[in-house]
Amino acid sequence: MKSNRVYRIALFDGDGIGPEIMAPTRSVLDMVAKRIGRKLEFETLPAGAQHYAETGESLPAASIDAARNADAILLSAMGLPNIRKQDGTEITPQIDLRFALGLYAGVRPVKLYPGQPTPLADPRAFETDFVLIRESTEGLFAHMHEGQVVDNSYATETLRITRATSEKLFDFAFRLAQRRAAKRGTPGRVTCVDKANVFRSFWFFRSIFEERAKAFPEIAADSAYVDAFAMWMVQKPWEFDVVVTENMFGDILSDLGAGIMGSLGLAPSADIGDENAVFQPCHGSAPDIAGKGIANPLAMFLSASLMLDWLAGEHDDAALTEGAVMIDDAVSRVIREGKALTGDLGGSADTAATSEAVMKHLGA
């Protein structure tokens, strides 16, 4: 790969603390790009709750088109609880973007770094390093704008699971397990989480999983009911490798994973489709601290690391893999040192101090 390759990154600054954590993330990416001999070209696109309040649009068509044509999309926190649609729901352009671009695989790493605060007392907790794959376009979210309240007496929502998306989702999970096994030198494993003992839709989901598992005989495959798996995530999270589940279950379990990690401020994510991918922190826009300069930027940095790693695979560019590792290692060192952590991690540093500490390690 030639060093003059330019990667076009679409940026959504978001709402609340979003712009505050996006700015240092651009600085981190600029430093890394310079070190690895690559060029990142950024384009900031309008979207979000505040944009909706000002224009009546939360995700303009032009922003979707520009994002679709970019090499990758980096999205900060979006939404504000005091800005809602007429039906009472919040503005969620980040979800709309998943549907518009067909981003069916939501990637939520659950990993503990040395020195990281965690509510788990077992020392084996620091062996935790698994990836939760959340289907991101179907399940209970497939008809999220079509729920009905009938005669003020009952409400209904529709859950949708299709073979086409499920097959792609499971193949994605097994391929990820293959890459992790090759990288770590350990056997790969994929666990399907569902509620197949109660709902026919989830039995359909599991049956497709078992079919696709046959195409990856070197990867162990097993299944678990979501209630039991939630318990196991607390009791023995270090035992899992790749976990794949339905949209709503994945939404809930990914926050449980962040709780195990000690804070949503350390939880990155990606939403990946056949042609596009969005990278963003799992946390919200935190309007209660917006403008105070105390937001934790680390989940945003780690999301940028995921972005570089994905781009490396898409373009067979080992330099980008190196850049992803640089960011991950710098964040890990800041956590391990414990001197520049924000309030959600038990420290007293502000956004600038934490960012500077990461930049210092990147430049070392």
Order of helices and strands: EHEHHEHEEEEHEHEHEHEEHHH
Number of strands: 12
Quick one: biggest sheet?
10 strands, mixed
> In terms of per-residue confidence, which ranges show pLDDT below 50 for 5 or more consecutive residues?
none
Residue share in β-strands? 15-25%
Give the helix tally. 11
* Distance separating the two termini: 25 Å
Word description of this protein:
The protein is α/β, with parallel strands linked by helices. The chain contains 11 helices and 12 strands. It has helices at 18-36, 49-55, 61-69, 93-101, 163-184, 200-213, 226-235, 247-261, 298-315, 318-337, 351-363; strands at residues 6-12, 39-44, 72-75, 105-111, 129-135, 148-150, 154-156, 189-194, 220-225, 242-245, 268-272, 277-281. It has a 10-stranded mixed beta sheet with strand order 2-1-3-12-11-4-5-10-8-9, with helices on both faces. Strands 6-7 form a two-stranded antiparallel sheet. Helix 1 (18-36) packs parallel to helix 11, helix 9 (298-315) runs antiparallel to helix 10 and helix 10 (318-337) crosses helix 11 (351-363). The chain is globular and about 55 Å long. The relative contact order is 0.17. The mean pLDDT is 93.
Strand and helix map with partners:
Blueprint: E1 6-12, H1 18-36, E2 39-44, H2 49-55, H3 61-69, E3 72-75, H4 93-101, E4 105-111, E5 129-135, E6 148-150, E7 154-156, H5 163-184, E8 189-194, H6 200-213, E9 220-225, H7 226-235, E10 242-245, H8 247-261, E11 268-272, E12 277-281, H9 298-315, H10 318-337, H11 351-363
Parallel strand pairs: 1-2, 1-3, 3-12, 5-10, 8-9, 8-10
Antiparallel strand pairs: 4-5, 4-11, 6-7, 11-12
Helix pairs in contact: 1-10, 1-11, 5-6, 7-8, 9-10, 10-11
